[in-house]
């Protein structure tokens, strides 16, 4: 099976899961990325079940609205029973690297409100030690160089994210992203805390302090579920 087929498999499994566990009339939390897009397409088949969705990016908002979902402002929402999102890497404890699509800050905010974080990923994303995927860090533009020096002192090699056209990539929040290569993340919680404390850092793409509660992993043998 191709990676895209595995993504489609877990996206459908997540839609089935949500149908089973999310009470009718509840608000759905929706992530960002190619796997999350497939989830949006799958869950749209029973969108009437939800009072609306809270989205983690402008791109997911557009896709949700194209399917006729009502997209709600998080400030108007008290409870999100389930948040479904992809990951760039996930380890055996449910800690993740996220932000490959640049939506890490809004993803972390929506995830923090959700009761349950359901991670959907193809099998290649499950790793023993995270760090092969460069760790995204969203930074206030004026702090870019100062934060990059601190991340280098941490043992990483930060690189400013660029667009395909060669411009500086800007997040939905108007900030920049440093992608940090060369890290071996054996203690994700303490690294998340340390990077969070660097002045100018908006969000680090480590989701360890609040990791996944459920992983739906797409493998050639089918979808494997882990609960953390
Ligand atoms: C976006 C993310 C995505 O969830 C992550 O990059 C995985 O993306 P994909 O499903 O396309 O592999 O964190 O900011």
TrEMBL record:
<keyword id="KW-0413">Isomerase</keyword>
<dbReference type="GO" id="GO:0009052">
    <property type="term" value="P:pentose-phosphate shunt, non-oxidative branch"/>
</dbReference>
<comment type="function">
    <text>Catalyzes the reversible conversion of ribose-5-phosphate to ribulose 5-phosphate.</text>
</comment>
<dbReference type="InterPro" id="IPR037171">
    <property type="entry name" value="NagB/RpiA_transferase-like"/>
</dbReference>
<dbReference type="InterPro" id="IPR004788">
    <property type="entry name" value="Ribose5P_isomerase_type_A"/>
</dbReference>
<comment type="similarity">
    <text>Belongs to the ribose 5-phosphate isomerase family.</text>
</comment>
<feature type="binding site">
    <location>
        <begin position="85"/>
        <end position="88"/>
    </location>
    <ligand>
        <name>substrate</name>
    </ligand>
</feature>
<protein>
    <recommendedName>
        <fullName>Ribose-5-phosphate isomerase A</fullName>
        <ecNumber>5.3.1.6</ecNumber>
    </recommendedName>
</protein>
<dbReference type="GO" id="GO:0005829">
    <property type="term" value="C:cytosol"/>
</dbReference>
<feature type="active site" description="Proton acceptor">
    <location>
        <position position="107"/>
    </location>
</feature>
<dbReference type="GO" id="GO:0006014">
    <property type="term" value="P:D-ribose metabolic process"/>
</dbReference>
<comment type="subunit">
    <text>Homodimer.</text>
</comment>
<feature type="binding site">
    <location>
        <begin position="32"/>
        <end position="35"/>
    </location>
    <ligand>
        <name>substrate</name>
    </ligand>
</feature>
<comment type="pathway">
    <text>Carbohydrate degradation; pentose phosphate pathway; D-ribose 5-phosphate from D-ribulose 5-phosphate (non-oxidative stage): step 1/1.</text>
</comment>
<dbReference type="Pfam" id="PF06026">
    <property type="entry name" value="Rib_5-P_isom_A"/>
</dbReference>
<feature type="binding site">
    <location>
        <begin position="98"/>
        <end position="101"/>
    </location>
    <ligand>
        <name>substrate</name>
    </ligand>
</feature>
<dbReference type="InterPro" id="IPR020672">
    <property type="entry name" value="Ribose5P_isomerase_typA_subgr"/>
</dbReference>
<feature type="binding site">
    <location>
        <position position="125"/>
    </location>
    <ligand>
        <name>substrate</name>
    </ligand>
</feature>
<dbReference type="GO" id="GO:0004751">
    <property type="term" value="F:ribose-5-phosphate isomerase activity"/>
</dbReference>
């Amino acid at each position: 099976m191709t990676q895209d087929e595995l993504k489609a498999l877990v996206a459908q499994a997540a839609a089935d899961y949500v149908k089973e566990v999310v009470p009718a009339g509840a608000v759905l939390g929706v992530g960002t990325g190619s796997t999350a897009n497939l989830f949006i397409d799958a869950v749209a088949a029973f969108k009437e079940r939800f009072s609306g969705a809270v989205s983690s990016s402008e791109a997911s908002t557009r896709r949700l609205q194209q399917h006729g979902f009502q997209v709600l402002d998080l400030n108007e929402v008290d409870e999100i029973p389930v948040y479904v999102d992809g990951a760039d890497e996930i380890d055996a404890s449910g800690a993740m690297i996220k932000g490959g699509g640049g939506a890490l800050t809004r993803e972390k905010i929506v995830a923090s409100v959700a009761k349950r974080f359901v991670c959907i990923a193809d099998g290649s994303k499950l790793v023993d030690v995270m760090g092969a995927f460069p760790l995204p860090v969203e930074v206030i533009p004026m702090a870019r160089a100062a934060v990059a020096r601190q991340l280098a002192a941490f043992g990483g090699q930060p690189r400013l994210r660029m667009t395909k056209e060669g411009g500086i990539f800007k997040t939905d929040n108007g900030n920049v992203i440093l992608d940090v290569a060369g890290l071996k993340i054996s203690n994700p919680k303490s690294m998340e805390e340390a990077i969070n404390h660097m002045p100018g850092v908006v969000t680090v793409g480590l989701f360890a302090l609040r990791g996944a509660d459920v992983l739906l992993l797409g493998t050639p043998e089918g979808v494997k579920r882990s609960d953390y």
